[in-house]
Predict the 3D structure of the following.
Amino acid sequence: MVTVKTHRAASAPSTSVGRSERSEDRWAVPVLRARKGGPAERLADRFGRLHPAIVFALVMLGGLAAIAVVSIGLGFLVTRVLEHAWGIGAADEHFNVWLAAHRTSSRTEASLIGSIVAGGVVLPIIVGSIALVCSALRKWRIAAFAVFALAVESGTYRATTLVVHSHRPRVVRLENLPVNASYPSGHTAAAIAVYGGIVLLLTSRFTNRIFQASAWTFALAMATFVATARMYRGMHHPLDVAGGVVVGIAAVIVLVFACRTAGAATSRETMHGRASKGRG
């Protein structure tokens, strides 16, 4: 009898740990986890004992600056080279003229929806809701990813339009926005950063192939819908949309790397704390 009781007592902690690990795994997002010996972990080592939140902010701001420089460079390439070479500018403009010539009331209403779902009201609500839920669950990296993917995209768009002055399509425009802020398409970039970013997290956590295919189909369809809507409404050329795609994808990449680096810094801090307790 003594042996049986001892066995049960010893097995109880193991069961508790197993439940804890399963509970933790439920919220694991592998794509935000630094690879052992990878660039994120190496960069975290270079930051020394800086707090993970500071590490995240530094990497995120550095990434924002890098994307802005690339976006501005591409903007100058488009406006000063491509638009004046090989008939690219004329073809770019002709596509918007064709879309404007085929406007109907139902298509115009659909284009309005396409603009709203990637606009300055819907997306902040989406990322804000995700951040609130994840903060309540203490999933800080997921919350930061959602909020700052949109922030990095928005910051890059603002920086680019301040420097690159590109005229919007010369058709009847369905919105009253500055006419010299055509490049890049901020709505397209935001749709990719938010919807694509969310799908990236979900498909990293849930590996069912049918779910992954459906999720990525949704993300691609949403980005295409938004991009087409912005061109239909006379707000952007195809080249502007291409610039938005670059900015949106880059914003997601920067936030993934920032979250991985912050996670590696957290692991380093935890290991250092345990080592200090062991010595004590």
Summary: The chain has a mean pLDDT of 88.
